[in-house]
């Protein structure tokens, strides 16, 4: 398990704990239990780095959570799950965050890209680029330059300009 994947699972755990804290202050014990059930095996997954435990999270715990949790609880995990899906497609592919049109750069979507030069990436079709998703500022096939955002965890590459 590489560091990018570890960081994503740590982010899932962090967001679940924040959900539990918020739901607890609202007195929603049953929703807290759903959150805890979703992530309680992640520490062991990270300490053993066992692919079977990761597959169990992905196929059983995540799917169960999606069927039980309210939309407001699930929405904080969907971009992370998208990024993990990208890593599963091709471990040598990078994940970029691409702005959505009309959102002034405030809403980002993870997409897959391959490195084509120094700080230059070509966006690939796949998760994050589906037709039902909002339009991306840089569509598949575009070569972009990226900035690294270090003000968040995990750090992320953000597409900032098109390269002609």
Report how far the terminal alpha carbons are from each other. 35 Å
**Count of strand segments:** 5
Radius of gyration: 17 Å
Arithmetic mean of pLDDT: 86
Largest sheet entry? 5 strands, mixed, barrel
| Spatial strand sequence of the major β-sheet | 1-2-3-4-5
What structural class should be given to the helix and strand makeup? alpha+beta
Topology:
Layout: H1 3-25, H2 29-39, H3 42-48, H4 51-68, H5 71-74, H6 78-89, E1 94-99, E2 108-117, E3 120-123, E4 143-149, E5 156-162
Parallel strand pairs: 1-5
Antiparallel strand pairs: 1-2, 2-3, 3-4, 4-5
Which descriptors apply to this entry?
5 strands, alpha+beta, 164 residues, five-stranded mixed barrel, 46% helix
Overview of the molecule:
This protein is α+β, with helices and mostly antiparallel strands. It folds into two domains: 3-76; 90-162, no CATH class. Helix content is 46%, strand content 21%. It is built from six helices and five strands; from the N terminus they run ααααααβββββ. It has helices at 3-25, 29-39, 42-48, 51-68, 71-74, 78-89, and strands spanning 94-99, 108-117, 120-123, 143-149, 156-162. A five-stranded mixed beta barrel has the order 1-2-3-4-5. A hairpin with an 8-residue loop joins strand 1 and strand 2. It is globular. The termini are far apart. The model has no long low-confidence stretch (mean pLDDT 86).
